[in-house]
Amino acid sequence: MNDAPTADRQAFYDQIGPHHLAPLWEHLHRLVTRTPTSPALPVKWDYDNVVRPLLMQSGGLITAREAERRVLILENPGLKGNTSATHSLFAGLQLIMPGEVAPAHRHAASALRFVVEGSGAYTAVEGERAIMEPGDFIITPSWTWHDHGNETDHPVIWLDGLDVPMVRMFDASFAEPANAESQTVTRPSGDSLARYGANMVPVDWKPERISSPVFSYPYARSRQALATLARNGDPDPCHGYKLRYINPGSGGSPMPTIGAFMALLPAGFASAPYRSTDGTVYSVVEGQGETVIGDTVISWKPRDLFVVPSWAAHRHKASSEAVLFSFSDRPVQEVLSLWREDRLHG
Ligand code: 1HN
User: Fold this and answer.
1) Is 69 in the pocket of ligand 1 (CB under 6 A)?
2) Cα dihedral value 198, 119, 323, 77, nearest 10
């Protein structure tokens, strides 16, 4: 029912409203759409020319300690006021200046970091520090203690991806500050990667939680794997050479609510059009190219960020060999039997 209601119907709606009742027939078509109709828009953030200078400006306005987290939110213009990049996911860029600490806390929301600029800062997760290098993917699963610090002489910037909008949807947010700003180091850096990330696990290990016991996935390894794939076979027509990050204990996603991916697109590669129901945030690691999303052309270069909304048909073109990191809510949709994809030709 798209037309304005007749006077007698409107009178009825006015009568039932005070009783907290509403006519489904006036809303049904918007609730149960034939295909997804995301209000999220395709959007790009130019890192070098726009976001980085503004983020550095924020560095002069507020300390990491004072801000708790000095993050500029990447807010989708189709979701104004929602502090989210897609309907289900938060994205932001976090700056930590030399000598700063972002104090330890934990929360119900799960977070990922994808290092965009600078090396040598750390995220400590449950007593182990992950030393950051550009392109590293780091997780802080739900309710794990985490703090960040920068003991180098240069700023370090990373992409934060969180399931905050999902947690909000469930009204399930909890958070707690730690007693100390920085966690005591209880395990040497690299310990969890050695234990769980070498295609081996300790002999009697049984997974204790749903999230990955590996919390730092170094870029060097992912990059090398992609380079080998690219030498050894043809790219997928829609994806190029694309890998997903896993929890080695299960083969599933590193955290239950967020899937993360890395793709290599060979120079000159033009992908076949594709769409899927998981709105996706991209971070360009290497190379230049463009992504055409419906009528919107997004041209990108290293460190740029962009969003492909749910069910928006898109294709990537790489003018030089490119590496794209991305994350989405795909694992959630998959367990709920909601996830769909469409390979438009290819
Ligand atoms: C958060 O706790 C962090 O721990 C980063 O670094 C970004 C965005 C929304 C809510 C909590 C962090 C966040 C956040």
Assistant:
1) yes
2) 120
* CB 111 near ligand 1, within 6 Å: yes
Residue 346 in this model has a pLDDT that exceeds 60: no
Residue 19 within a domain: no
Q: Is 15 left (phi over 0), alpha (psi -120 to 50) or beta?
A: alpha
Cα distance between residue 130 and residue 123, in whole Å: 5
* Cβ–ligand 1 contact at 146 (below 6 Å): yes
Q: Residue 114: which domain range?
A: 43-343
Indicate the pTM of the whole model.
Answer: 0.97
Residue nearest to atom 7 of ligand 1 (CA): 160
Decide: 92 in ligand 1 pocket, CB within 6 A.
yes
SS3 16: helix
| Any domain includes 4 | no
Residue 335 forms part of a structural domain: yes
CA–CA separation, 32 and 29 (whole Å): 6
Tens-place pLDDT, residues 163-200: 999 999 999 999 999 999 999 999 999 999 999 999 99
**Total domain count for the chain?**
1
Nearest CA to ligand 1 atom 6: 69
CATH number of residue 265's parent domain: 2.60.120.10
Asked if residue 34 is part of any domain, the answer here is no
Q: Give the pLDDT confidence score for residue 3 in this predicted structure.
A: 85
